[in-house]
Specification:
Its EC number is 2.1.2.2. It comes from Peptostreptococcus equinus. Pathway: Purine metabolism; IMP biosynthesis via de novo pathway; N(2)-formyl-N(1)-(5-phospho-D-ribosyl)glycinamide from N(1)-(5-phospho-D-ribosyl)glycinamide (10-formyl THF route): step 1/1. Catalyzes the transfer of a formyl group from 10-formyltetrahydrofolate to 5-phospho-ribosyl-glycinamide (GAR), producing 5-phospho-ribosyl-N-formylglycinamide (FGAR) and tetrahydrofolate. Keywords: Purine biosynthesis, Transferase. By secondary structure, this protein is of the alpha/beta class. The protein has one domain: 3-Layer(aba) Sandwich (Rossmann fold). It has six helices and nine strands; from the N terminus they run βαβαβαβαβαββαββ. A seven-stranded mixed beta sheet has the order 3-2-1-4-5-6-7, with helices on both faces. Strands 8-9 form a two-stranded antiparallel sheet. Helix 1 runs parallel beside helix 6 and helix 5 crosses helix 6. The radius of gyration is 16 Å and the shape is globular. It starts with a strand and ends with a strand. 38% of the residues are buried. The protein binds glycinamide ribonucleotide.
Length: 196
């Protein structure tokens, strides 16, 4: 069984989907700790409700220590809106995954987080958007892509409406990837990711 750490900055609906999938037995893993760089993140409250250790921490070195203390096999960035240093990404190479609410390489990288991603997609006029789960390397949103799924973008959409539509598939995609990861069914060769 894999040891999982989840990092959040906000509401934590993606965290909740992982908690539920672990509790139902869909994911063969254990969430040992949830860490947030924001003290008021609702995600910390969700963790506590499920008897998971919840830590507010902004210092990256301390976050690394906390993750190491739990013998962590997988670090999930579930709406963690702080860019990680290369020290962090090298410490947990190929063990960190991130969920991003667009089809990378569109509307991603520095400055594209939360609603800003959806505003970007709407302003550009794209007809499809979606969600991406990828490994995290030392740059923002550039690591190997594990899975993507699309949703339509309607001409009348507001950023909030698009965000809602994308969130539904985020929750599904993230738990599918975490399940495969915990079963050792994900393999990376250069930028190409193979899922058995
Ligand atoms: C999600 O849409 C996630 O993809 C996004 O933040 C939201 C967090 O929602 N992440 C990024 O934009 C990362 N660049 P949640 O707290 O309800 O899971």
């Amino acid at each position: 069984m894999k040891n999982i750490a989840v990092l959040v900055s906000g509401g934590g609906t993606n965290l909740q989907s992982i908690i539920d999938a672990v509790e139902s037995g869909y994911i063969d893993g254990k969430i040992n700790v949830v860490i947030s760089n924001r003290e008021d993140a609702y995600g910390l409250y969700r963790a506590k409700k499920h008897n998971i250790k919840a830590v507010f921490e902004n210092d990256e070195n301390k976050i690394i220590e906390e993750i190491k203390n739990h013998n962590t096999d997988l670090v999930i960035l579930a709406g963690f809106l702080k860019i990680l240093s290369s020290k962090f990404t090298r410490t947990f190479e190929n063990k960190i995954i991130n969920i991003h609410p667009s089809l990378i390489p569109a509307f991603c990288g520095k400055g594209y987080y939360g609603l800003k991603v959806h505003e970007g997609a709407i302003d550009y006029g794209v007809k499809v958007s979606g969600a991406t789960v990828h490994f995290v390397d030392e740059n923002a949103d550039t690591g190997p892509i594990i899975a993507q799924e699309t949703v339509p973008v309607l001409p009348t959409d507001t950023a909030e409406e698009l965000q809602k539509r994308v969130l539904v598939i985020e929750h599904k995609l993230l738990k599918e990837v975490v399940k495969k990861y915990c079963e050792d069914k994900i393999r990376v060769e250069k930028r190409r990711v193979f899922i058995d």
